Amino acid sequence: MNAVIAQLPVLILVVPIVGALLILLAGKVNRNFSYPVTLATISFQFAASLILLSAVMTGGTIHYYLGGWPPPMGIELVLDAFNSFVLVVILAMALLTAVWARQGAALDIPPEKTVPFFVVFQLLVTGLCGMTITGDIFNLYVFVEITSIAAYVLVASGRGARSLIAGFNYLVLGSIAAGFIVLGIGYLYVATGTLNMGELAAMLPASYGLATVHAAFLFLMIGFSIKVAFFPLHLWLPDAYTESPAVVTILIATATSKVTAYAMIRVIFSVFTPQYITESFPVTEVILIIAAIAIIAGAVLAIAQDNLKRMLAYSSISQMGYIMFAIGIANQIALEGGLLHIMAHAVMKGCLFMVAGMIIYRTGITGIHQMSGLSRTMPLTCAAFALAGASMIGIPPTIGFMSKYYLVLGAVEAGQYLAAAVLLIGSLLAAVYIWRVIEIMYFGDHHEGALHSGPEAPLSMLVPVLILAASCLLLGLFVDIPLEIIGPAVTLLLGGS
Amino acid sequence: MIEDLFALFLSRYNYWMAIILMLIGLYALIAKQNLVKKIIGLNIFQTAIFLFYISFADVTGGTAPIYLPEGPGALYVNPLPHVLMLTAIVVGVSITAVALSLVVRIYQEYKVMDEDELLEVMRRP
Q1: I need a labelling partner for A444 at 20 to 30 A (CA). Which of A140, A296, B22, B100 fits?
Q2: pLDDT under 50: residue ranges of chain A
Q3: Which CATH number belongs to the domain containing residue B54 in this structure?
Q4: pTM for this structure?
Q5: Which site among A138, A172, A243 would you substitute to test the B interface, given the most B Cβ atoms closer than 10 Å to its Cβ?
Q6: B-chain residues within 8 Å CB-CB of A243?
Q7: Would you state the pLDDT for residue A174?
Q8: Is A481 exposed, middle or buried (0-12, 13-18, 19+ CB in 10 A)?
Q9: What is the ipTM, given to two decimal places?
Q10: Count: domains in chain B
C-alpha cells in the first residue's frame, strides 16, 4: 500500500491520461459508458489528492523523480503545502462539475458529441493537475498548453455559432500568452542553465541585476496575465465564459483560472523571490495599482451587464484582481487572504455559474431582467445563488468575507490604506451587481405563464450546487481548517524556497 | 552612431532576426483581417521562438552532441534547447490544427473568413 502511495504523484497524472483513452474506448462500445468512466477517473484523482495533502501535512514536501532521474537531469514533481492545497481545491471543483455534467452536459452538447466532450474534459483536468504539481518550468509550459488546447476546444463546442468565435479569439490570445511564457523560460535558461524550479530559485539571485532576468520576468508576467485574464488583458474572457457550454464555463471559471493564478504565484514567489519583486525589480507597486483598477473596473463592467453569465464573467475579472492584489501587497497576512480567496472564489463562482446553468436548463432564460419571481419556481436554486452571492459580496460569516478580511488586514499592515479602501469599494460594487439579481429573483413581479413553471433542476445538478453553497458558509465558519494548510504554504512562499 | 548600431546588429544578428520575425508574426496576428492569415502570423510568431532557442543553444565551433572519439571532453552544442523545441513544435502543430478546424467551422456557419465581415454578420440578429 505504501508503495502505491509513494507513486501517487505520478499516478494522479498517468491514470487520467489512460482514463481519457478509456473514455474514448467505452464511448465506442456505447455512448452512455463514457460518463461513468470520467466520473470514476476524476473521483480517483480527488481521492489521491486528499491522500497526498495529508501526506504533505504530516511528512513535509514530497519530491518525485520521474523515471528515477534526479534533477537537473530529470523532471521532478513537487508537492508542498501550497500546491497540494490547490490540487485538492481544483479536483473537488472538477468532481462536482463532473457530477453536475451528468445532466448539465446535455444542455449544450449534442448526444453524438458527448464522447469526445468527456475525453477533452478529462484531458483539461489532467493538464490542470500537471500544472499544479510539476517542479520543472518547461514542463509547466507543456501542461499550460495541454490545458489551453483542451480549453479552446471546449469553449468552441457550444451550441451557438458564436462560441466558435469566442474559442478562436481565446486561442489567438492564449497562444500569444503561451509564446511569451516560453520566451521568458528561454531567458531564464540562458541566465542560469537549468529548468528545475528549485535550482532556478537557488541560482537566480546571482544574476538579479541582469537585463536578461528582468526580461524573463516581464515576459512570464505578461504571459500569465493574459492567461488569468488580469485587467486590461482580459479581452478573451467575457465572450469565452458567456458563449461556452455551461459545464465548460463552470470548469474554466473555477479550476482553470485558479490553477493559472497558482502558476503565476509559483513563478513570482518560488522561481523569483519576494526579494526580487520588492528590491531588485520593484514591481509590487505596479501590480497593486493594476489590481486595484481591475477590482473596480471589473465590478463596474459587471453592473452594466444584463446576461447573467456575462455579468459573472466580468465579476471574475474583478475577483482575479483580489488575488493579484495579494501579490502586490506580498506580506504574510495578505497572501493568506489571497490563497484563501483562490479557494473562496472557486467555491462561490462555481456555485453561481452552476445556478446560471440550471436556470438556462429549466427555463432557457439568460437575461437578468427576465428572472423576476424565479424564486417561487426554483426556491433551492435561488437560495444557493443568494448564499454564494452573499459570499461574493463578503457578508460575514461567509468564506468570501474571510478572504477579503485577511486581504484588508494585510493591506493595513503594509500601510496601504488607500488600497484597503479599494477592496471595500470593490465589495460595495459587488453588492450592487449581486443584489440586483437577488432582488429580481425574490421580489420581482411573478408573471404567471411568463415563466415555465417547471420544478427545480434535477437532483444531480442540485446536489453539487447545494454542496457548494453550504461550503461558502461552512468554510467561513470553520476558516481555521483551510488556514492551517495555507499558513505554512505562505511561509514557504515568502521563505523563498 | 549608425555604424555602431549596425555593428551591434551584426554581432547578434541571429537574435535580431528572431525578434524581427516575432514582430512580423505579432503584426499579422493583430492587423490581418483574414482568419487564416492570422493563423499564419501565429505560426511565424512560434517559429521565431523556436529559432531563438536554437540559436542560443549554439556553441562557436561546437559539433553535433553525439559521443565523439575525443570522449566527453569534445566541444558540442547544447542539445537541451533542441529537445525543448521538439516539444514546442508538437504543441504548435496541435494549436494550428485546432485553429484551422475552428476557422473551417466558422466559415461553415457564417460563410465569411474576414474579421470585419464576421463582426457585421454577427451584429445582424
Answers
A1: A296
A2: 449, 496-497
A3: 1.10.287.3510
A4: 0.91
A5: A172
A6: none
A7: 92
A8: exposed
A9: 0.91
A10: 1
